[in-house]
């Protein structure tokens, strides 16, 4: 099941495309973030994509696909590109990551994470 969560802890189960779009559009600079997480009963948590609107008006996008030790991150100024990526990830498109230069942040301390690990 797909779950969307914002920085206030509001949870939307099985969010629609318009709901994801509204949540992204409502982000405010600073600590505001949106997390899309794929939760399946028979698997460990750990598949997510998240976005943080930073103070410099850039969107920080991060993902983890089930391997706790491997996380990747990118930045963009385009809300449209972020929305396209979020919606692509939500429906399982293989090419949702295309169009970004991803950095492996697996070995970082996590200081820039938009959310705490569960």
**Low-confidence residue ranges:** 109-118
Approximate shape:
globular
* Rg, alpha carbons: 13 Å
Strand-residue proportion: 25-35%
Q: Sheet with the most strands? A: 7 strands, antiparallel
- What percent of the residues sit in helical stretches (DSSP H or I)? 10-25%
Q: Assign the structural class, choosing from mainly alpha, mainly beta, alpha/beta, alpha+beta, or little secondary structure.
A: alpha+beta
How would you describe the overall organization of this protein?
The chain has 118 residues and is of the alpha+beta class. It is built from two helices and seven strands. The chain has helices spanning 17-25, 79-90; strands at 2-6, 11-13, 33-38, 47-53, 59-65, 72-76, 103-104. The protein has a seven-stranded antiparallel β-sheet with strand order 2-1-3-4-5-6-7, covered by helices on one side. A hairpin with a 4-residue loop joins strand 1 (2-6) and strand 2 (11-13). The longest helix is centred in the last third of the chain and has 12 residues, at 79-90. It is globular.
